[in-house]
Write a structure and sequence with these properties.
Blueprint lengths: L12 E3 L4 E3 L6 E2 L1 H4 L57 E6 L5 E5 L14 E6 L8 E2 L6 H13 L8 H4 L2 E33 L4 E24 L6 H6 L9 E2 L9 E3 L5 H21 L7 E30 L2 E8 L5 E3 L5 H29 L1
Parallel strand pairs: 7-12, 8-11
Antiparallel strand pairs: 1-2, 2-3, 4-5, 4-6, 5-11, 7-10, 8-9, 8-12, 12-13, 13-14
């Protein structure tokens, strides 16, 4: 939905600095609440991440012969996330498709010809936006384009082996603010874990040295609360890149309004909540194992033997997270960077100056050689 300025009729855009809608033509500002009536609101509150204290047995060793197997995992989810779009909410929204990588992005009807934020190739408008679910939540952009440019410059300056002219001569091929689709998994989990642990003692007599190693099975059980476990819903966004700019603060999420999309792109999800379940479960299993392993004390070695995780009160929510994507070139190579537009966390690979690398290698190699020579000389004099 396109929002017109009541003062001059221009298309409003969301300004991350003031967290309001602003007209780029007459500079009029409007609170989001003033435009809220134009969207069908979802009474979906945002919640902060919480964790229940882990409680369990007293930790006494369990006889391996009498230990009963743990129950099977129950990691099923209610994946009914998002909702249907209301009447008129998608008016003015268009879908743009990249003919090279197949990426689909959503923008308003006033968006000029643009390039794909994923691969840099031109995109073409395919028509009106239809189909995909409406998000439950959105985290609005908090940092603007200038902050993203400054972050790239500081990121490059902080690395010693980056070509010295990279910061000065580089030109940004593209910088785009894009809302990335995320599935957020909430659940309580009843966890049982069994660890194999060892204790050893050593002693000697006049003839032999002895080492006695005792093996134990140690059970731990308790409950954990998981809230907003994220899995990005775009196959075009590199999962490692997106995980590297986490976390996002879900407590700042608000019920979705199309007004937040004004002036930005939105990636149209192509990975469903059902397809993201395995990834969410892997993150839950890893967190649970790390938490319960930390409760096993007093042993020399601890390894996981088996586990049982059973979810309850599970649900999935659909949210949009703000990201700045920056593309730049250096000597024919393309470099992509991403910045969390809420926290400012910045990530991306930089080019390396091979000449500088050899310079540092020779410099530090010479220093190490000189120090070694002085130590040998001093040692010989002492003898």
């Amino acid at each position: 939905m396109e929002y017109k300025c009541p003062a001059c009729g221009g298309a409003l855009e969301f300004d991350p600095k003031i967290q309001k809608m602003k007209c780029p033509y007459c500079d009029s500002e409007y609170e989001m609440a003033e435009l809220q009536a134009k969207d069908e609101q979802l009474n979906q509150g945002a919640a902060a991440v919480t964790g229940a204290p882990v409680t369990g047995p007293d930790g006494e060793p369990v006889d391996p012969e009498s230990a009963a197997p743990l129950p099977e995992d129950d990691l099923n989810w209610n994946t009914n996330a998002g909702s249907e779009w209301g009447y008129g909410e998608t008016d003015g929204m268009r879908v743009y498709v990249c003919n090279s990588c197949g990426g689909e992005i959503v923008g308003d009807a006033n968006m000029a010809a643009t390039s794909c934020p994923f691969c840099g190739n031109p995109v073409v408008m395919m028509g009106n936006f239809t189909g995909a679910l409406k998000p439950d939540l959105v985290i609005p952009f908090k940092l603007d384009k200038k902050a993203a440019k400054d972050a790239l410059r500081m990121h490059a300056k902080s690395k010693k082996l980056v070509p010295k002219f990279f910061c000065e001569e580089q030109h940004l091929d593209e910088i785009k603010g894009i809302y990335v689709p995320y599935w957020l998994f909430d659940s309580s989990a009843d966890v049982q874990m069994r660890f194999r642990a060892t204790r050893s003692r050593a002693w000697s007599d006049s003839r032999y040295d002895y080492v006695e190693t005792e093996d134990y099975l140690v059970d731990r059980a308790g409950s954990l609360d998981f809230e907003a476990v994220p899995a990005d819903g775009s196959s075009k966004m590199d999962d490692t890149l997106m995980e590297s700019i986490e976390p996002f603060d879900i407590s700042e999420a608000v019920p979705f309004q199309t007004a937040y999309l004004a002036g930005y792109l939105a990636d149209k999800y192509d990975v469903t909540a059902e397809q993201s379940v395995e990834r969410a479960n892997d993150r839950i299993k890893k967190t649970a194992e790390e938490t319960f392993r930390g409760q096993v004390q007093g042993y020399e070695t601890v390894t996981l033997d088996s586990s049982s995780i059973r979810l309850r009160d599970s649900r999935v929510r659909y949210a949009l997270y703000p990201v700045w994507l920056l593309n730049t070139s250096w000597k024919g190579e393309k470099y992509t960077f991403a910045m969390n537009a809420q926290t400012g966390k910045f990530i991306g690979d930089l080019p390396m100056d091979k000449g500088a690398w050899w310079k540092y290698l020779l410099l530090y190699g010479g220093i190490i050689t000189a120090v070694a020579y002085l130590l040998v000389t001093l040692f010989q004099k002492l003898l």
